[in-house]
Structure formats: structure tokens, C-alpha cells
Design brief:
The model has no long low-confidence stretch (mean pLDDT about 90). Helix 1 (about 30-50) runs parallel beside helix 2 (about 70-85), helix 6 runs parallel beside helix 7 (about 335-340) and helix 9 (about 375-385) runs antiparallel to helix 10 (about 390-414). Helix 7 links the parallel strand 18 and strand 19 (about 350-355). This protein has ten helices and 19 strands. The N and C termini lie far apart (about 60 Å). About 30% of the residues lie in helices and about 20% in strands. The strands form five sheets. The chain has a six-stranded mixed sheet. The protein has a six-stranded mixed sheet with strand order 7-8-9-12-14-13, with helices on one face. A three-stranded parallel sheet has the order 17-18-19, with helices on one face. It has two domains: about 5-285, Purple Acid Phosphatase, chain A, domain 2, CATH 3.60.21.10; about 290-360, no CATH class.
Amino acid sequence: MQAIRILHFADLHIGVESYGHLDPQMGVSSRVRDFLNRFDEVVDYAIGNGVDAVIFCGDAYRNRDPGATYQREFARRIKRLVDEDIPILLLVGNHDLPAMPKKASSLDIFHTLEIPGVTVARRPGIYRIETKHGPFQAVTVPYPTRALFLAGISYRGKSIEEIDRLMARKVAEEIENLASKVDEELPTVLVGHFSVMGARYGSERSIMLGRDIILAKSVLASSPWDYVALGHIHRHQDLNEGFYPPVVYAGSLERIDFGEEGEEKGFVEVYLRKGETTYQFIPVKARPFITIEADVRAARDPTEAALQALSQHQVKNAVVRVNVKLLPEQEASFQERKLMAALKDAYYIASINRDVERVYRLRLEVKAVEELGPRELLEKYLELKKVSEERRKLLLQYAEELIREEEASGDKAG
């Protein structure tokens, strides 16, 4: 049997405008064009290589109420696939969901128009997708919400953690229920938008809407699935590498911020066969993000030393930030404008940060220290180290999770 070739991509996030300039042609941030260009790479590859189908695993836009320009540009690219008779499945992610359950999602318009070849999955279900190389079935599990999975179930009086566990159990039960109903003769793809235990995160937490429900990998890594196509986590990864079926996050197509600086971006080409599915990752030309560290404390001329550090990097068309470590006596002679001039070919200069070495003393009474909790102590430490506000928020968020886990394990031990 010839493989059915499917393109799997996710987390498009049209509407991210950070680190950009006004694009006079579109009237929005130039960064929006970055995200659209990456979408074009997916569509061009699909058409140019004659793929059989496309699966999009959620989060078309930056937020749940996208502007008309963003919707138009998304629809233009969907139309290109439709015009080439390439069926596409659009799964609803958390950024596509309305604040009120009864309202339409940002993708529902494609369902309303009944466009041939376009399937919108807002609820768990089983869809038979016809392609030129035969049919396959897609089992869809959109982003888990209380309205979707806890309708009619009383959770009054339960803690947030208890509700999360209940939600995860209900989602797992729904997946098992759908698995029992599939046609076992057809190759089957599980299509989901959620977090899985063991996944390595990217920058999605910094733009996440709503609480995150985490499923166990064991719920996914079993029959009858031939491939598990996931969205929501921005880092490309196979959670079941070396085993069957592949459990794959395609990752996002474009970098959101410096948290994704070292991540390769792209989409996945899947060769779907019953019991023997394979895939390959296809990289895209995502905008480079570069952090330049220049420690010039030992230099006679701090500006020249910083310029030398800059020359070691290809900054053309990149989003760049520079961290310069200085001594107090070097600060007055440091010429930032020369660094700005050297970065003229960069796409965007995010920051030139001066980290001036000073001796600080944290003057706190012993009693005051004893009264501070772990989070407050960490806050004061980060403030002392002059960690950026964006980075500080992220570190404190991670710390909160670790503290909660430690407290929970301590309660169990007690």
C-alpha cells in the first residue's frame, strides 16, 4: 500500500507583533509577515510536493479575537490548498477558543461556509478524510476546556488541582472511547492540542491562555493510532522516539521570542501507512534570534571589545540583543551608539543591556529573612541581579510550579 503523505503543522500564532516595525503595506507589525511567510512555506511545500492532506493542530492566531487582516491572510492560504484539492483538517486550539463557550471560534467560519475539503474540529470526534491515495481517519481532541469535558459534572468545592486531575481523567476517557470506535482497517491519526507529560516546553507558557491540562503519554502511545499529531508545545519533539506510534509535536513555525532562540522551527511530513508510519521534520526559514554576550571587564577599550564580540555573529536580518558586562569605571567611556551603528543590518535591536559589576549587600534583618517565603527570597535575588522583567516573570512562574510540587509531595509524605 502506498503511503498517504500528510503535512502536520501547528501553533501559527498570526498576530504576534513583538520585535517588529510597522509594515506600511499591511498596516500591521512587520513581524506578522514573518509568520505569514512561514505559513507560505508550508503551503508551497504541500502544493509543490503533491501531498495528500494537511493537518493543522491548533492556534491559528495570537489571540481569540483576531483582526480582519489576520483572518483574510489566513483564509488566503487555506484557499490555495483548497484550489489544489488538498484536504485540510483544522483543529481548534486554546488561542482559537472564544471566552464564552456558546460563541464561535476563530476557525468556525470555515465550517459555516462548508468549503469542500476543509474540516473544522471544535469537539472530540472521528473524521474520515478522503485523499487521492485512499482514506484515513482522524480522531480529534481539541484543547480541553471545562465546558467541553466537565459539562454537567459538579466540581463545586474542589481545588484547582483536583479539577485539573478530573479534567485530565475525562480527556483520557474520551480518547479511549474514541479509540474503541475507529475503523481498524484504516490508518488512523490522533490529532490533539494539549500538553503531554514529559514534553519539553518552548516559549508557549509566556503567551498561554488558560490553565494547562497535562496528559500521561501512555494515553497516546498505544493502538489504534498510527501517528499522533500534536500542537500546543512550541518545541518540535517526538515523545515516543524509537517506538510506535510516533507521538509528535510539530512545534511552532516562527520564533515568538528569545526563549525559542536555539530551537529549529518547521513542520512534519508524515508517511501514513497502517502499522508502519514514518515521518520527517522539514525546517523553515524562521527569523533568527541572537543573544550576544560581551564581557569587556578586562578590556582597555570596552567599546572596541564589545564591537569585536559583535563581529563574531551574523546579525543581518536577525532580532538581536546584546548583554555587555562592564566595570563601574568603564561605564562613562562606553559608547553604545557605536554598537547601534554596527548592528545596522539587524532586523531589530531588542536591547543593549549594560551589566555593571557592583558590590551589593542585601540588607535584611535576620528576623525579616526568616519571615520571607521561598518566592519572596527569589524575587529579591532576581531584583538584586537586575534580571529583566520578562525573564523574572518566567522564572517566578517556574518556581511557583516547583514550590507547589514540593509542598504537595511533602503533604503526601506527612
